[in-house]
Design goal:
The chain is mainly α. The protein contains 16 helices and two strands.
Length: 418
Amino acid sequence: MKKLISTLLVLLFSQEFLSDSYEDEVRKRLGLLKNKPMVTMASDSDASESVAAGRTGEAVYNLGCAACHTAGLAGAPMLANQAQWEGRLEKGLETLTNIPRLFIGIGESAMTPTTMSILSDRYDIKRLGFAAGFYYMGVPLGVGVSLILAGYLAPVIGWRGCFYLLGGIGVVLGLVMLLVKDTPRKTVTAEAPKQSFAEIITLLFKVLRSSKSLVLTILAGTIYHVLLGASVFDQVWAIQDKGLDRASFAQASGWIFTIFGLLGSVFGGTFSDWALKKYNFPRTWFLLVLTLLTVPFAFTRYLEPTDFLFWAGICVSAFSLGCFYGPVFAVIQELVPSNIRGTIVGFNLVCLNLLGYVPGSMIAGIALDSLIASEVETPYTITLVGFNVVFLILGPVLYYLAGKFYESDKAKLARDFG
């Protein structure tokens, strides 16, 4: 039953990233980027400029849009039918895509804290890294498969058909989870007093004030997500700076993130558990060693796609992403009382996304706008390597300090919070 529940949770989680990452691919194809557009509606006078910026609107339409919009399938407004388009044009494509994305985000935010709390009740603390890593296989699985869909399936059934397909998968998996029964929490007794929201938040910040290791681990993860926020431009980088074909690179990177991301998730969770159990080696020090080993690959973006190391760097990036989540989410649950484990996961996700991922993508977009306006050569490469360097400077220091205070903070947790 434990394995079944874990597998279902992974599939549900990966489905969230399928739709999320595939939406990013759709937005790139439609030119919804802050900086240089990938799609331009070219006229005769600016045809050469549009080719330099990306494919023409007509080419994009014929490749992925015509399947639905020519015949009006699934309620899609038909080409040149002004009456069908009026309501949608008033709202704008941003509104039409952001509203569904809002509800996807709500599902993502609610799922992970609950899931990590469930897993912590079903796995021994020494195997919590594996459990968290196994669950977070959903990230590379979702991202990778979405890129594979974008490369293979989208030209056949269109982006709308892909969204429907992914939504259907999520509904089926959600219904299957209804059949899973809850089990009693192993660390909370039936007589434990209920806590109000204010009491839980008060306890959360009390723990944060008392645990240097916890705060440093969350801070390191947040900075890592600044880098991940900038990486939303990876697909554009491959096309604009490296001259790779969009569909071909989406297919290749999809397979890379699926295979090496999954391997990283298993490796990060399993070996961080092993190192902690056998040598009392803190999980954050495991991430420190891993980060230092991957330093040279941060600069392979400068190489040409014909170079083996170029693709090795992308593989290492996917592997590192998979390794990250298991150890980090295990640490933050080990350093808090059991009755706020779900809360600390939620707080961590707020930091990772609101303070890390969002600023990272915004800062990268602003930097790219500035570099492109200045006609700098390879602006995407320079920006993405710059974000890598920032993390490689700050990340190892934070990982080291988090591991240094790990044992003393665990002892303080047992003493102060039982």
